[in-house]
Amino acid sequence: MSDKPIYVTQPFLPPLAEFAPYLEQIWNSKVLTNGGPFHQQLEKALCEYLGVDHIALFSNGTLALVTALQSLRITGEVITTPYSFVATAHSLLWNGIKPVFVDIDPRTLNLDPRQIEAAITPQTTAIMPVHCYGHPCDVDAIQRIADNYNLRVIYDAAHAFGVEHGGSSILRTGDLSVLSFHATKVFNTFEGGAIICPDAKTKQRIDHLKNFGFVDELTVVAPGINGKMSELNASLGLLQLKHIDRAIERRKEIDAIYRSQLDGIKGLKCVQDTGESRQNHSYFPILIDSEFPISRDDLYDVLKKHNIYARRYFYPLISEFPMYRGLPSAHASNLPHATAASRQVLCLPIYPDLTGADQARVIKLVKAAARRSAAKAGKAPTSPPVAA
Ligand code: T4K
After folding, report:
1. Whose CA is nearest to atom 15 of ligand 1?
2. Which of 166, 243, 342, 344 could form a disulfide with 287 if both were Cys (CB 3.0 to 4.6 A apart)?
3. Helix, strand, coil content of the chain in percent (nearest 5)
4. 163 and 260, same domain (yes or no)
5. Region 311-331 average pLDDT
């Protein structure tokens, strides 16, 4: 196996020389954290870029989720999706809240609003949906239910940096939205995250909560956590913003090539957008069903054997992990669409530095796997033949 490894993603990093002046400034000022100048500049710059009113930066998306729930004093039960990264539900457990899993819409892979009402109980206080792969949830339907039942809505928008819906930021919907700036995300600050909130008062409460609950030197108003973003991460964020449009543009090109090459292969479906007016192409998930000549796991293994590390996001479902599977809502019979998607999904490599040749390697292997296995099973090829 001599081919170089290709991972599901690789962080975008600007030229190192461009980062040096930021580092110099940090070294000279010796202001490393606690809301320094880069932190303040990045909050302002992100509000402008994303088209939102208030943003509170965090050291990662998970602490931002935990704090978002605290800031709205959410308790009891929260309705959420099992088809996500574990951090979504973990943030509920960290707050002593019971997650109630509701199935996804098989077309969008997001929380299905039609299933939410049946899961509401007197203990329900909020809904935590996820804009999975950066494709917006049905925010209008979710808001209608929330308004009817007096529930709060906190979006896990970890995948949704820069995504717009009807010409406006998707982060403006619900009560709060939470972003992740982890290395694997469209916009990264190494580690990082943020809460987007609609008003200054909520932002102030969030800012207290992420700084141990300190209001001033002598006043602590809540048992807050240390969730602050450092100056190093914030300065990188400022630099990343200069490159982000080109990075998303490059993702769009890669996405288009996958679709043109893979769409139409029997048993393989490229997950579609949900009608967003601006996409970010954060992931490239395909669904492999029984009409494809090999299983999703066999395809994963074939790629791995050739040093291509596609990922099964999100398998297993959150509801299948030991700390959740005892919940009544975690039963597979309650979650048929999420269960099916988690067994079919494979996320193919997509990131700005993925070369055309590397992407061609991925596509060729997917097509060849389908063709060879079909031949072995005596089936007709499911895709146009490719050179060996
Ligand atoms: N909500 C949702 C819906 C999320 O998806 C996430 C995170 C969160 C909340 C929580 O946000 P954070 O607290 O993380 O800010 C990764 C990420 O660690 C995680 O951030 C992400 N979601 C999740 C979907 O994926 P792993 O365990 O799959 O990551 P890992 O280390 O296997 O990385 C994947 C590939 O990326 C590697 O094979 C190579 C490449 N990579 C990764 C890192 C970390 C690099 O090239 N460089 C790197 O530094 O979880």
Report:
1. 61
2. 344
3. 40, 15, 40
4. no
5. 98
- Last residue of some domain: 210, 241, 272? 241
Q: How many structural domains does the chain have? A: 2
- Ligand 1 mean position, distance from CA 184 (Å): 5
- Vertex 154 angle, CA 45 and 186, to 5°: 45
Asked if residue 223 and residue 111 are part of one domain, the reply reads yes
Residue 1 lies in a domain: no
pLDDT tens-digit series, residues 210-256: 999 999 999 999 999 999 999 999 999 999 999 999 999 999 999 99
Residue 95 maps to which CATH number? 3.40.640.10
**Ligand 1 pocket mutation pick from 66, 184, 225 by most atoms within 8 angstroms of CB:** 184
Q: H helices within the chain, ranges in order?
A: 16-29, 37-50, 61-71, 87-93, 113-116, 139-149, 200-209, 231-262, 296-305, 336-344, 356-376
Ligand 1 pocket test: which of 80, 85, 159 has the largest number of ligand atoms within 8 Å of its C-beta? 85
The identity of residue 142, as a single letter, is I
Please write the tens of the pLDDT for every residue from 147-169. 999 999 999 999 999 999 999 99
Q: Is residue 296 part of a domain?
A: yes
Last residue of a domain, one of 241, 268, 298: 241
Atom of ligand 1 nearest to the CA of 84: 3
Quote the domain boundaries for residue 122: 16-241
Residue indicated by tokens 């973990």: 90
Q: Is the CB of 43 under 6 A from ligand 1?
A: no
Determine which residue's CA is closest to atom 48 belonging to ligand 1. Answer: 183
233 lines ligand 1 (CB under 6 A): no
Q: How far is the CA of 139 from the centre of ligand 1 (A)?
A: 25
* Domain presence at residue 363: yes
Give the pLDDT confidence of 180-208 residue by residue, as tens digits. 999 999 999 999 999 999 999 999 999 99
- The structure tokens listed for 263 are 């769409």
